[in-house]
Amino acid sequence: MGKFIITNINKLSPKHENMVLPYEYYRYEVTDGKEKYEVGSPNGGNQTVVAFYVIPPGKAGYQFHYHIANEEVFYVVAGKGICETFDGSHAISAGDIVICPAGKNGAHRILNASETENLVYLDVDTNHTPDIAYYPHSRKVGIRTAGGIRDNYSLDEPVGYYDHG
Question: Which has the higher per-residue pLDDT, 52 or 5?
């Protein structure tokens, strides 16, 4: 069950991810991010997942993607960035709010446009499971379900319904 929370980013310890170039971020979890896909039902944990992200200069936190079941809202706290969408790139800066609905219209990637300053934003996501995330540029699909299933598949190697692995 979710719990009542009052906190401050200065009280949170970051989780640093430095995957492959150009992806890197520091995630300050306000709610437990693992709960997003590891609860028996969305109501068994938090109905939203909340975190602050700090993106170093020239980096992005995630690949271009969209979710089928979940929405994401970003509030830019500090810095300047670029939000890539299917409609093009949009400059974002402190005070801006980005709302990404579920589905293809919500496709996005946020990049830090600065060479010297961090981009800081608050990320609030709905917590519906199962969810499917599409990554159009890398031709992948990610499956996320209750119980902690987090698998990714290439869209370039389709299999038939009756094919066995």
Answer: 52
Please choose, from the candidates 74, 30, 71, the residue with its C-alpha nearest in 3D space to the C-alpha of residue 55.
74
pTM: 0.88
Please classify residue 20 by burial: count the beta carbons closer than 10 Å to its beta carbon, then call 0-12 exposed, 13-18 middle and 19+ buried. Answer: exposed
pLDDT at 159: 80
The answer to whether 123 touches 80, Cβ cutoff 8 Å, is no
Domains and CATH numbers, the chain: 15-154 (2.60.120.10)
Could you tell me if residue 100 is left (phi over 0), alpha (psi between -120 and 50 degrees) or otherwise beta? beta
pLDDT given for residue 1 in this prediction: 52
For residues 111 and 114, what is the distance between their CA atoms, to the nearest angstrom?
Answer: 9
CA dist list (Å): 125 to 40, 96, 114, 117: 18, 17, 25, 25
